[in-house]
Amino acid sequence: MDIKSLRVPCVLMRGGTSRGLVFKDSDLPLDHEARERVILKIYGSSPNGQIDGIGGGTSVTSKVAIVGISSTNESDIYYTFGQVGVNKKSIDYNVTCGNMASAVGLYAVEEGLVPRVEGETKVKILNTNTNKIMEVLIPIKDGNIENKGDFSISGVEGTGAKITVSFMNPAGAFTGRLFPTGNVIDEIHVDEKTFEVSILDTGNIVAFVQASDFSLEGYELSQTIDKPDVSKEIEKLRVEVGILLGIFNKYEKINPELEALPKITLVSPPKDYKTELGIINKKENNNIIGRYISMGKLHPAFAVSGSICLATACQIPGTIPHLVCESTTGNSINIGHPNGTISAEVFLQKNESDYKLLKGGTGRTARRIMEGTAVVPKYLIDKEGEHG
Q1: pLDDT for 252
Q2: Burial grade of 100 (CB within 10 A; 0-12, 13-18, 19 or more)
Q3: Model pTM greater than 0.90?
């Protein structure tokens, strides 16, 4: 064995429409900076892309999950999510990912971190990014994890066993409030235009705006939304929302790949449209159409945390999503996204002057793809470790 190489055990997993490595906390360097260097080297993040690592070259395939045994009775394990930069040597921990939470729940049961319970094993997860609890239900049959099933999610080929991911009491994870500004609608000025947005904090901070404010119909795909003129205007709005919330300073230069929050989602009323695969998504399949922007690009599907946030907004009168959403009776909202539909279920409690989000969740599938060890130069764990 090469004594100048460091070998780090890890598992490559897909969770929902995301993919990344799952590490045990104890297998990574304790020193934060050394840990960052090791993870970034494994992913290959650099101005040349991720050619020298396992990163998939997109935001949804450049995610990392770090897992350990929880020391509290409220949770079984803890989970730290990191959004790994593609072209930048950076990891953003100021966000979370419900898609990867489905992989983390599956991993915990596979690794024996949580004892198996026949029927369904509930994995209680402390998400360290938000200091909130997630619950993931893993199906068990005859003592084995059930992989086979007829549950499908848009954006992933085939079917599998349904894994339910729920965010428990997720409101105010980053700002302490469901509506960070205290308003259901805020006016944001960008250059000569004024946008009306609804900003909610339910696991991630998302600002909702009508697609028509960008002269879009709402059903457009990446070839339109990722065009520089459109994406730059969306990013300008995002920066102004961040300044309003105190996340950004007015005069600092913001890189969407490094500062992922707040998120922007374009919403529009349901209608027939073609997905990225050319399949017609019928109007009657959806209550609302959403286009979720992640790291400056259109998300190919829709984030779990984002879907819970949007479903919550759809249930609250006066918000932008509520204005365009159709048929909001019941707890579930179907959201049309670039690759199909995601359904999110939320449970709200109306208070005298506000709302309390008790729980929000959705169904996912997950899969262990590969397991083994990642190999990186050992000098990366030195105190003055190089950044190569």
Answers
A1: 81
A2: buried
A3: no
